[in-house]
Design goal:
Blueprint: E1 2-10, H1 16-30, E2 33-39, E3 42-50, H2 51-62, E4 70-74, E5 83-87, E6 102-103, E7 106-107, E8 112-114, H3 116-126, E9 131-134, H4 138-141, E10 144-146, H5 159-164, E11 176-180, H6 185-196, E12 201-205, H7 208-216, E13 222-224, E14 226-227, E15 234-235, E16 257-259, E17 269-271, H8 274-278, H9 288-297
Parallel strand pairs: 2-5, 8-12, 9-11, 11-12
Antiparallel strand pairs: 1-3, 1-4, 2-3, 6-7, 10-13, 14-15, 16-17
């Protein structure tokens, strides 16, 4: 049986390169593949492989990263084509490495952590005053989000600071704002950036959408599918998940992303239904050049 591990920890790392080399050697010895980033602020990783290897990886990694929490997910090494372990300025690329402060307890000055059940208590107490703020790229929210969530116009994580400083979200600064993302890591940083920019009451969903979905499935405040960064592309928290996305060609409901057929020049991921994805003439993003390429391949 194979599994996928998702994890992160914010803490000062004096020698990120040494940690990178250790993690690379550890994964290679265990036959794990995936992606790991290390910086002076901490570590962020997703690895997959046999259950026994994953368990050994957890034990070894916790020898250095005390108290590290790991999220287990279905899948395995086949979901990742290779192993990549790198040192970066940030383990989440907001473009503000010097603004982020961490200590042995994690991010300094971040939003208040709320567990899934505490989130429900907050909503019951504060009602419609609570604002859900999506901490992911806008594309991810096309197939799933919290009900009535605010989705910033972001193509990459770097876009968040510009969005926060644009003035578009100033109306939220005196409201209880719940930031959320896939596993929680992006909101560790995002919530601190928001507080630094005048948002007075900021929360972050502990464990992210993954933990919330594990507890409440499709019966709570979450709607749709969860975008994931491996070959699965999306996952659901039950068989009755709503389909929020629509095919860019025919508008049919779908939660499946595909690369535009013009892969040489277009890097866009687009929502396509099975019929449009299987027909070269419609397996494109809608751009003029991409449509011409699709017509040539049809």
């Amino acid at each position: 049986m194979s599994k996928i591990l998702l994890y992160y920890q914010f803490r000062p790392i004096a020698d990120p390169r040494a940690v990178m080399l250790w993690q690379r050697d550890l994964c290679e010895s265990l036959g794990l593949t995936g992606r790991i980033l290390v910086s002076k602020h901490g570590i962020n990783g997703t690895v997959g492989g046999p259950m026994s290897a994953c368990k050994r990886y957890v034990r070894k990694t916790r020898e250095y990263f005390k108290g590290m929490e790991f999220k287990w997910s279905e899948g395995g090494a086949e979901d990742f084509p290779k192993l990549s372990v790198k040192v970066r300025d940030e383990i989440v690329a907001f473009g503000a490495p010097d603004e982020l402060k961490v200590d042995e307890n994690g991010v300094v000055g971040g939003g208040t952590h709320v567990k899934p059940e505490e989130l429900h208590e907050l909503v019951e107490k504060r009602g419609d005053d609570v604002v859900f703020f999506d901490g992911r790229n806008a594309l991810e929210a096309q197939i799933g989000k919290f009900k009535n969530a605010v989705v910033p116009e972001t193509n990459t994580t770097h876009d968040f600071i510009t969005e926060l400083e644009s003035g578009k979200y100033d109306w939220m600064k005196d409201k209880p704002v719940v930031s959320y993302c896939t596993g929680g890591i992006r909101c560790e940083v995002l919530s601190s950036l928001m507080i630094n920019r005048g948002f007075k009451e900021v929360y972050q969903l502990d464990g992210g959408i993954v933990r919330y979905g594990e507890k409440y499935g499709n019966k709570g405040l979450w709607e749709g599918s969860l975008y994931v960064f491996d070959r699965r592309m999306h996952m659901e928290f039950g068989e009755d998940a709503a389909q929020l996305g629509h095919c860019v060609q025919c508008d049919a409901p779908t939660n499946t992303f595909h690369n535009c057929v013009n892969e040489d020049d277009c890097r866009r991921q687009i929502l396509l239904c099975d019929d449009c994805a299987s027909d070269a003439s419609t397996a494109h993003c809608g751009g003029t050049v991409c449509a011409e390429v699709a017509a040539e391949q049809a």
